[in-house]
Amino acid sequence: MINTDTKMVALIGNPVAHSVSPAMQNASFQALDLDFVYLSFQVPPAALAEAVNVIRGLGFRGANITIPHKTAVMPFLDEIDPAAKRIGAVNTVVNTQGKLTGYNTDAPGFLAALRQGGFEPKGQKAVVLGAGGAARAVVFALRDAGATVTILNRTHESAVNLARESGALSFELSESGLKSAMKGSSLVVNTTSLGMTPDVGSTPLLASFLKQGLFVFDTVYRPRQTRLLQEAEAAGCKIMGGLEMLLEQGALAFELWTGQPAPRDVMRQAAAEALR
């Protein structure tokens, strides 16, 4: 039962209705008998600063930050973890007696999920689609793990800037750009929202670029299997959806808020049930 002692954690994004994080985190709090509650709030960009002040003012224990606020939230925080500062994106906030510190659990969460899927990025060539907050985490994680990375984005300037910061390459998101980027690549990661419910008919990559032996990772987790993953599987690619990344980044956030090991099995089951 929620009372004055209950520690609140927020999900701040726009949109947030699709998120399974509330089900996943609340199940975890209950499993460990922790007096926490996780609530989602749809916050438009113009209200972001006010929302952060509410987190501080009402004594929330912390927050998850999702699309489109992962970079925009940073100036409103009191401190940024060095890894998150380098990445340039925050997805987790911890409130310590009114001091808000931003972290990035997307990068280690992505890398853990990728390795669980059997892909070791060291020495591999990867293509990342997108240049937003999620892309920043993926690109820096892959570069730190020893991969060569090429970024493609609809707004080429964003891809160029991210490539410059991370030591990656960039191409325009065009047929010729894709041909150049895909040559010799063993991994493709979609960090855009293309293919996410309700836009399930969209894909960021034409099926003609999907070849047998390629590993295709889609950070979208609703639906469980996007059009990109369906077409990749049909082409003989190894595939992974965004649920495992969601689980891993959520587990790391849980541990930051609570100081306790996350019950990953509980989280996985709750997230899977919420996606049915």
Automatic annotation (TrEMBL):
Spell out the NCBIfam families in the cross-references.
aroE, PRK00258.2-2, PRK00258.3-3
The record places domain Shikimate dehydrogenase substrate binding N-terminal at 11-93
A GO term (biological process) for this protein? aromatic amino acid family biosynthetic process
Q: Which InterPro entries match?
A: Aminoacid_DH-like_N_sf, NAD(P)-bd_dom_sf, SDH_C, Shikimate_DH, Shikimate_DH-bd_N, Shikimate_DH_fam, Shikm_DH/Glu-tRNA_Rdtase
Assembly description:
Homodimer.
Catalytic activity reads: shikimate + NADP(+) = 3-dehydroshikimate + NADPH + H(+)
* Keyword flag Coiled coil: no
- The residue ranges of the Quinate/shikimate 5-dehydrogenase/glutamyl-tRNA reductase domain are 121-192
Q: What enzyme category does the UniProt record give?
A: oxidoreductase
E.C. code: 1.1.1.25
Family note: Belongs to the shikimate dehydrogenase family.
Any idea what this protein is called?
Shikimate dehydrogenase (NADP(+))
- Catalytic residues, per the record, are 70
Known function: Involved in the biosynthesis of the chorismate, which leads to the biosynthesis of aromatic amino acids. Catalyzes the reversible NADPH linked reduction of 3-dehydroshikimate (DHSA) to yield shikimate (SA).
Q: In which pathway does it act?
A: Metabolic intermediate biosynthesis; chorismate biosynthesis; chorismate from D-erythrose 4-phosphate and phosphoenolpyruvate: step 4/7
Q: Which PANTHER family match?
A: BIFUNCTIONAL 3-DEHYDROQUINATE DEHYDRATASE_SHIKIMATE DEHYDROGENASE, CHLOROPLASTIC, SHIKIMATE DEHYDROGENASE
| Positions bound to shikimate | 19-21, 66, 91, 106, 221, 249
Known Pfam families for this protein?
Answer: SDH_C, Shikimate_DH, Shikimate_dh_N
Q: Which UniProt keywords apply?
A: Amino-acid biosynthesis, Aromatic amino acid biosynthesis, NADP, Oxidoreductase
Ribosomal protein as a keyword of this entry, yes or no, is: no
GO molecular function term, any single one: NADP binding
Q: So where does NADP(+) get bound?
A: 130-134, 219, 242
* Residues in SDH C-terminal domain copies: 242-271
